[in-house]
Amino acid sequence: MGVVVNLEGGRGRKSSLEPLIELVSDDLKAVNELIVQRMDSPVALIPQLAGHIIAAGGKRMRPVLTLAAARMCGYTGTRHLALAACVEFIHTATLLHDDVVDESDLRRGLASANAVWGNKASVLVGDFLFSRSFELMVEDGSLDVLAILSNASAVIAEGEVMQLLTTNDTQTGETAYLDVVKAKTAQLFAAACRLGAVIAERPRVEDEALDTYGMNLGIAFQVIDDVLDYSAKQVTLGKSIGDDFKEGKISLPVILAFRRGDDGERAFWRRTLEDLEQTEGDLEHAIHLMARHNALDDSVERARHYGAIARDALGIFEDGPHKKAFNELIDFCIERAY
Amino acid sequence: MGVVVNLEGGRGRKSSLEPLIELVSDDLKAVNELIVQRMDSPVALIPQLAGHIIAAGGKRMRPVLTLAAARMCGYTGTRHLALAACVEFIHTATLLHDDVVDESDLRRGLASANAVWGNKASVLVGDFLFSRSFELMVEDGSLDVLAILSNASAVIAEGEVMQLLTTNDTQTGETAYLDVVKAKTAQLFAAACRLGAVIAERPRVEDEALDTYGMNLGIAFQVIDDVLDYSAKQVTLGKSIGDDFKEGKISLPVILAFRRGDDGERAFWRRTLEDLEQTEGDLEHAIHLMARHNALDDSVERARHYGAIARDALGIFEDGPHKKAFNELIDFCIERAY
């Protein structure tokens, strides 16, 4: 019981993304309309395929960050709508290319675009969305915005290549893992948040605070995502686990279990994740080893650390509903683990 | 003999890309250095893989178009160097993604990046080069330039998806083929040329003339490329032919032979290109059918038409070495067929 109270931070209810979404719900509706409108093309496969992955859609967390950051910074115009759509297009393009990359068959429970339409279409429609995103930015007309998102895009691509190199390599340490997470996931969170301060023309200190918030929120989010792939909670929710294990992804729980394990355990990790020689019961054994070494709980502790940095970064903003909801988002990202 | 004279247009020597390259050779050297410098990354696989495909490099035709167009328009600054590098990065990213797409094993006689490093790396390094290209444009700081190249990128991606849909479909007609060629190939030629007028701040009429030149040169170039894939000349040069046939690409020579053929011939095209049921001798038979219906020569005639439009578009520019070399480039693109 004590453990449960500790894990849930003593709160009576689970934290949620909802408060932030509610604060920007009208804006988000406009962004969703803009997304549908701007992913259109006379080449029918493009809206079909893009619509499939955008509808599967998930939580629209990244565009919500842009919308809410702009509002928290006192922005009253409409530029944040197109830029939130840009951020979602870049994210969707990354997902489509990641489908090729990870040979994943399922994403968010729906058949991946890749499985339905093939590698080729996923690559090309991703390219289209990526280009369309830059067209939207050019229409917005701010070189500052273009600099932020073109840089983020290059860093994301670098992160994806880095991940390719660390996959199946049990030598990968926590630093290399973090470098990938920062580049591949957290950079877009940071960019999405910063855009709010940039279009509201807020001072540099607020731009940097939102950058720090987004970066550390993104790290926490990805670490928990990696924990969930080995989590009993996912199983009880009917979600699949073990995708990372199947692919031989060297995520933080693996790194901790590997470093804390003995020679026999390391041989197990090498066989299953480097050589990808996996048999029945291996995933269960991996989870067992992680439990033995507290790898999942300690990964969550690491995530809490980044969450704490994110929270303190927001300290310079005035208290209010947006700041409150941004803070609750940190809790939500971490409490997903339970 | 009469035929040979006719085909070579009565000229004593073959036309070449060289005069244009010579006119911008110092600029091109600077562009090549910039390319090496800006494709660098701490993630070593990126310069390795990008370097492989950029070194294989071909003729640098697209950046040369930008450099020469800028000079013909009287531009005396240095912005054209970075923008020529942008154009080459976009082209290279497209090649890398095309490698995934076409499952081609060989490009320009070297092992394709895809064959050496795999699909995943080709997609991601392509993404990196594409993002890097936008970073270079943002550094240049012109929204006009960004609009031209972000639009070109979106159109190219649309063209690639269109091509995906026409591949293996013998119902594809000449108009649909042209739509793909314009989007996939000619759009970047047009953008590369236009950039010269834009940075030289020339009047709209010159911008449009270079756009028309590039678009029609690009169409002529691609039509001849498609002819060469069935051409005896390629065989005598030791180059491989039949890649398009193997993939079931519906190119102009196929379209003409199919439309001019009888029921039995159409059944042959359907079996080989739609069902991809190919046996020994099929490629030779395809070439035989093309010869029967004059499909290759008439494709070259079509290319000449686009070449003529390109030539007339340049009429508004003053005579001089650049205009002369641009005109020779049209001849070169077409005479490659012989």
Structure notes:
Two copies of one chain form a homodimer. Chain A is mostly helical and 338 residues long. The first copy, chain A, has a single domain, classed as Farnesyl Diphosphate Synthase, CATH 1.10.600.10. In chain A, 75% of the residues lie in helices and 1% in strands. The first copy, chain A, contains 18 helices and two strands. Chain A has a two-stranded antiparallel ribbon with strand order 1-2. In chain A, helix 6 runs antiparallel to helix 10. The longest helix of chain A has 26 residues.
Please tell me the total number of domains of chain A: 1
Q: State the CATH topology of chain A.
A: Farnesyl Diphosphate Synthase
Task: Quickly give the structural class of chain A.
Answer: mainly alpha
Helix content of chain A: over 70%
Structural shape of chain A: globular
CATH class of chain A: Mainly Alpha
Secondary-structure arrangement, i.e. CATH architecture of chain A:
Orthogonal Bundle
Strands of the widest sheet of chain A, in order across it, are: 1-2
Oligomer: homodimer
Radius of gyration of chain A: 20 Å
Topology:
The structure is a homodimer of 338-residue chains.
Chain A (H helix, E strand, L loop, with lengths): L1 H6 L10 H6 L1 H14 L6 H12 L4 H12 L6 H24 L3 E2 L2 E2 L1 H5 L1 H22 L2 H24 L7 H26 L4 H25 L3 H5 L6 H5 L4 H9 L2 H12 L7 H11 L2 H19 L7 H15 L3
Antiparallel strand pairs in A: 1-2
Helix pairs in contact in A: 3-6, 4-8, 5-6, 5-10, 6-8, 6-9, 6-10, 9-10, 10-11, 11-17, 11-18, 14-16, 14-17, 17-18
